[in-house]
Amino acid sequence: MKRFNGAISSFVLLMFLCLCGTQGYAQTIIFNNPGSVAIPDNAYNGTLASMANLPLSVSGVPNNGTAVVTISVRIGHTWAGDLTAKLVAPDGKVLALMSRPGYIESADDGNGCCGSLSDFLIANTITFDDAASTPSENIGASNPIPTGSWQPSAGAISVPPAYATFSALVTDLGLTTLMEPGHFI
After folding, report:
1. Model pTM?
2. Which of 14, 53, 59, 180 registers the highest number of CB atoms within 10 A of its CB?
3. Domain with 110 in it: what CATH number?
4. In a domain, 1, yes or no
5. Residue predicted with more confidence, 122 or 66
């Protein structure tokens, strides 16, 4: 049985690390997102349109190298295995940050049951980073889920530098009638 958790979730794009090709140095540019969007409960059908979308404006990134993106989030939500989170780059490339931790999906379509029963606590920061040693599919190995870093579940978080808008997407795939409200900001 799922538990109700009324905690507010926050989803924050924190860092672009610009690796400036021939200059031989790295520059860190931090962006914080001030907005908030409700996480839809039991709405995901495999499409981006069925996910909550939080636009993340990025500007001032030098257009002279490869950007490596690190995403840090704070989520207050029960049943980590119900959640899917993605980042959509300005060029439309979709990066799966996590997809139903603890559940082996045959397809990314919102069907099936059940992933990790572990809880996200709003106080704990979850970071998605290509350099992390633990895959995000193992994010629910502890309950509650601790602050830490995980590798995205599909694709790399490397995108060209941009002066555009990324989209942070998240949804709940719960299969019960219990509402599990949440937000990400």
Report:
1. 0.79
2. 180
3. 2.60.120
4. no
5. 122
